[in-house]
C-alpha cells in the first residue's frame, strides 16, 4: 500500500510540474478567436505571429478583478524595467464596453485583446486558467518561457525576462 501511495504522489508531482512547464500552447488556445480593440476577430495564433521575434509578457486580466487592478502598478514597473518587451493584455471581461473602459480607467498601455468566452471558456481551459491575473512569458521564437505567474513582481517572471532580454 505504501508503494502505491508513493507512486501516486510522484505521479501527481510530475504531472503538476509538467503543466507548469508547458512550452507550447494547445491547439484549442491557438485556434481560439479573440476580439481586437477595433472590434475585429483574430485567432490567438495570429496574435502570436504578430509578435514573433519579440519577448512577450501576456497578462490575462479583467476590469472587474481587484487583484488585477492592484497588480497594475507592478505591471507598469515591469514595462519600465523591460521597455523592449511587448506587453499583451488578454481580457476576461464579459463585455467589450467594460473591457475598453477598464483599459482607459487604469491607463493600461500595450497590446489589447479580449477572450469572448471568459475564464472557463476555450482559451481559459487551454491554459489551465484558475486565477487572474495570470502572467506568461513568450520568447522570441514563440515558445512559452514561463507558463504561470500570478504576481507581476514574481521572481520567476523577472528572472525569465532578464534571461530573454
Automatic annotation (TrEMBL):
Entry-linked SUPFAM superfamilies: Thioredoxin-like
Keyword annotations of the record: Cytochrome c-type biogenesis, Disulfide bond, Redox-active center, Signal
Protein name: Thioredoxin domain-containing protein
Organism: Flavobacterium limnosediminis JC2902
GO cellular component, one term: cell envelope
Main location: other
Membrane-spanning intervals of the chain: none
InterPro entries: Thioredoxin-like_fold, Thioredoxin-like_sf, Thioredoxin_domain, Thioredoxin_ResA/DsbE_sf
PANTHER family for this protein: THIOL:DISULFIDE INTERCHANGE PROTEIN DSBE (PTHR42852:SF6)
Gene Ontology BP, a term: cytochrome complex assembly
Signal peptide: 1-18
Entry-linked PROSITE patterns: PROKAR_LIPOPROTEIN (PS51257), THIOREDOXIN_2 (PS51352)
